[in-house]
Amino acid sequence: MRIVVGISGGSCGIYGVGLLKVLQELNIETHLVVSTMGEYVVKHECGMDLDELKGLATHYHNNKDLAAPISSGSFKTNGMIIIPSSMRTLAAVANGISDNLLTRAADVTIKESRRLVIVPRETPLSVIHLENMLKLAKMGVRIMPAAPGFYHQPETIEEIVSIIVGRALDQLDIEHNLLKRWGGV
Q1: Which domain range does residue 46 map to?
Q2: So what's the pLDDT on residue 177?
Q3: Which residues in the chain come in under a pLDDT of 50?
Q4: Is residue 16 part of a domain?
Q5: Which residues are annotated as a binding site for dimethylallyl phosphate?
Q6: What Gene Ontology terms describe what this protein does at the molecular function level (predicted)?
Q7: The total number of structural domains that make up the chain
Q8: Is the pTM of this model over 0.70?
């Protein structure tokens, strides 16, 4: 299995870090691309520099490298998760603006009819944000706001992160045991 992971500048870089750690534990090949603001947010919120973040991925691609393998549809992947996604990245993907590797890889994922999961992190949402999300959802993109459920009764930040990471993995049919499944009352 091969997954592209994008981290852009929305707050909650901890979700991207958590996803990479889980995919590493599951021995799933990852191709990481990070925006400039994504790098900043991970440093600010998680205390991790880019080299540490790269160490969690199988492969790292510079966001300016539009000739990277993940920029081509002939490079087969099982999908892509952008976690977190800024509204700028979401808008670029929704409108086909492939001006960097992250948005180009998302564009390729859509055009090749592969699964794309976007975890936007913004609140409140404007009409522009909602229209861009609707546009993507109509294309089959899975929009999964960073809004964890609490029926699991999480007690730590790590457990909250696991809920979002687990639900993102569910969207790509990746087996995990990060969260307790609802079984009713």
Answers
A1: 2-171
A2: 93
A3: none
A4: yes
A5: 151, 167
A6: carboxy-lyase activity; flavin prenyltransferase activity
A7: 1
A8: yes
